[in-house]
């Protein structure tokens, strides 16, 4: 049974969802991913709030999947990936704006979650890192579609090269829409939500027009699921995770 690593508050008619496991860089275990999707759907109807802001606590937005509980079978991989996919699905189904307030490093699946948000506002400490290609893991969250939609050809170096993209570079290529001081980050995201959703009737309609279509997202999920299966069957997944833990243990010595 996990602790509650998702903290929710209402700030000026905006739901602020905070990933709160700072000692572990806000890594996302399965229970937290399920809770996050459920909470987004709870507020996403627009009946309770004007929008949603997603952020983290401490020096990380989130370090992504909790590799302490790494899947050991393909069925477990499939189920784990499904919980990431469902967060993307929940965000894109909302009737209200969803903004990521990226307060620090965003790794892997957590980085990918921000791609489905309607805007990404970062602090100067914001940083994007997609290490999957060097860990035998396949990108998910429909990022195979969403990342290229945002940054075009930069997607190749971000994924294949696993380059760390600092805040200024993220702004330049379109991963971030704005950089603001850390102390103003969430407030700026809340203000943006309220500005964008002055009339929920038309805002919901425009979100439907501007966001990617559901069939595009589901097709990306299917391709990513198939690639994850192939990675498992080739042994790349197991070898990548073993290498990750070996290098981490070596650094501790």
From TrEMBL:
Cross-referenced InterPro entries: ClpP/crotonase-like_dom_sf (IPR029045), Enoyl-CoA_hyd/isom_CS (IPR018376), Enoyl-CoA_hydra/iso (IPR001753)
CDD domains, sorted: crotonase-like (cd06558)
One Pfam family linked to the record: ECH_1
SUPFAM superfamilies (alphabetical): ClpP/crotonase (SSF52096)
Catalytic activity reported: a 4-saturated-(3S)-3-hydroxyacyl-CoA = a (3E)-enoyl-CoA + H2O; a (3S)-3-hydroxyacyl-CoA = a (2E)-enoyl-CoA + H2O
Entry-linked Gene3D superfamilies: 2-enoyl-CoA Hydratase, Chain A, domain 1 (3.90.226.10)
Keywords associated with the record: Fatty acid metabolism, Lipid metabolism
Function: Could possibly oxidize fatty acids using specific components.
Similarity remark: Belongs to the enoyl-CoA hydratase/isomerase family.
Protein name in UniProt: Enoyl-CoA hydratase
Originating species: Nocardia rhizosphaerihabitans
């Amino acid at each position: 049974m996990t602790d509650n690593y998702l903290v929710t508050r209402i700030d000026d008619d905006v739901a602020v969802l905070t990933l709160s496991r700072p000692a572990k860089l806000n890594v996302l275990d399965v229970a937290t991913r399920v809770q996050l999707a459920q909470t987004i759907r709870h507020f996403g109807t627009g009946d309770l709030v004007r929008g949603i802001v997603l952020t983290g606590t401490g020096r990380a937005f989130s370090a992504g999947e909790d590799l302490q509980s790494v899947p050991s079978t393909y069925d477990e991989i499939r189920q784990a990936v499904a919980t990431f996919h469902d967060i993307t699905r929940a965000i894109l189904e909302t009737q209200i704006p969803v903004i990521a307030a990226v307060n620090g490093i965003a790794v892997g699946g957590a980085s990918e979650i921000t791609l489905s948000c309607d805007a990404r506002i970062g602090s100067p400490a914001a940083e994007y890192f997609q290490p999957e290609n060097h860990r035998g893991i396949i990108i998910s969250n429909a990022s195979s579609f969403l990342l290229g939609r945002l940054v075009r050809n930069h997607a190749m170096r971000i994924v294949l090269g696993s380059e760390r993209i600092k805040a200024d570079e993220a702004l330049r290529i379109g991963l971030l829409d704005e950089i603001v001081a850390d102390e103003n980050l969430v407030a700026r995201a809340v203000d943006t939500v309220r500005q964008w959703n002055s009339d929920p009737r038309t805002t919901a309609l425009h979100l439907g027009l501007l966001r990617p279509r559901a069939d595009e997202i589901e097709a990306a999920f299917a391709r990513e699921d198939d690639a994850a299966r192939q990675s498992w069957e080739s042994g790349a997944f197991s070898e990548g995770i073993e290498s990750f833990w070996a290098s981490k243990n070596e650094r501790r010595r």
